[in-house]
# Entry
Amino acid sequence: MALQRLTTLRALMASQPTALSAYIVPTADPHSSEYIADIDARRSWLTGFTGSAGTAVVTNDKALVWTDGRYYTQFEKEVDLNLWTLMKQSLPDTPSIEKWLSSNLAAGSVVGYDPHIISREEKTPLQLALKKSKIQLLAISKNLVDVARVELKNPPPERPHNDIIFLPTNYTGKTAGKKIEELREKMTEKRASALIITALDEIAYTLNLRGSDIPYNPVFFSYLVITPAKVKLFWHDGKIPETISKSMDEEGVQIEGLPYDRVVPILENMAKELSESGDGEHDIWLSSEASEAIHRAAGGEDVLQKPLTLMSEVSPVALMKLVKNNIEMEGFRQCHIRDGTAVVRFFKWLHDEIASGTNVTELEADAKLLEFRRDEKDFMGPSFDTIPGAGENGAIIHYSPSKDGPQRIIRGTDMFLLDSGGQYRDGTTDITRTRHMGEPSAEQISAFTRVLKGQISLGSALFPKGVKGNVLDTLARKALWDVGLDYAHGTGHGVGHFLNVHEGPSGISWRPYPHDPGLKPGQILSNEPGYYKVGEYGIRHEDLVEIIDVNKNSTHPRASNLLGNYDGRGVLGFSTLTMVPHHVKCIDLQLLDDFELSYLNGYHARVLNILGPILKQRGLLEDYKWLAKECQPMKRQ
# Structure
């Protein structure tokens, strides 16, 4: 089947009016979403590799996939390695896609791509690099993987347009009307005639609406155009539900509904109207992450002799939603308490089941965790596909157990890595805890403790306001680097408010985030170092943290040592939101210094003080006893 799909695509490449020497298949949708719907899962269908990141390149005689270190092990398990070559993009000697194409294709070759699913930000440097080697980059308006699927009688599914819901201000803290008013003020400053919003989470945030078109991401397929006088939503067939229109009216927004599939011709028509209006120059503002097709349409590049000027840069909505308001932040704090309650109940249940000799599979554990989360107020569903990695599966960084075939039982000899999260109306959670189901080895205890030291180092750090996240990454790795260990993923990502669990433009990684505006109070990030011994076990500790202002009188554990405030820039630190204890049995106290031990005991005391009364009040006394035991202060012998 894999060979048939590859052969069909190559035949289509050869049959184009201008024959293609290569074709690029990214993991992408028309909105540059990280997680995609089934209709857009083209790279997965073509290659068999189901990881959430990667780009395939197919030539007449080669087929390659570029992906990062999170997915190397998964790729080799899922893909026919006789057909596909893994390009490990985290390694310094792996050439980029443009370098590989320039080195392996002859001058005069043509590389095809779908302009609807590649952003201008990605297309421009690729085009420039290929041009130097006399290679043409050609937009193919009809996606060739979709055509191949139809030819093989396995057509892609329809694009979903599920119901959308309104999120009131007791959750959002700001009306849609106020958000649009602020965006229009920024448009006036930029002298923009229109703001085109293409990222699905940005549209949901702006309008205080949520959907379910992409699994785990409460977004809906749409485009939003804001002008000084109008708000146009391209959604489904263009008919906005009466309940949504009423809610929008109450928030001070009158929406004009337009069909989703008509966005390109309508934008082209808008460009023509602005060009012919006779009232001066007109600039269009849109994100550099918008697709090449939307850029061309917005500027009228295919219909105007003199296209409009495009301001293609980081979206103002991305920067607006990055910093949470007081209502959103309190929602994050509260949903983490409820989420922590569910996760604590789950781990108590899991240890009891395994200790009693009951067989529990990874999928059964996942289902039980979902059951506990469903007990909590305002729970809307998981925030991503749970990673329940037992033993060797924990070393697959983005592991997902197959629902078919033999199931992996969680054994009493296993290190068990559980990475999971919840979507709540008042916030989004993402937590990883690693626990041993029996007696950990000395090697596992050492690795577990070193990963924990890294998490504490980052979680307790003080840093100047405005510093970029990549500056902090080394703090989380040092204890591993000291003994020659590391992990092949970033250390922290932003998180949306009842939105995408991965949110830009800030993060913490060894690679700089290209649009990181600098860290500010009110942002949410993850803190998640790890260690993975392929074929044996994985360890990851993940908390969500909020960025806070710190001064000498703050409760931050390092505040009392402050001597200054970085020459007036201001001091920032983290406050941990996640409320689940670490597995004390896996910690080597001799590897912790006094500060780290005090920090950990303080964290556990806080978890018990917050969750304990809730468990008691709900009559969950056995869960309370388990938690109290897990949170007992650790003492050196």
About this structure: The longest helix spans residues 326-355. The longest strand covers residues 543-550.
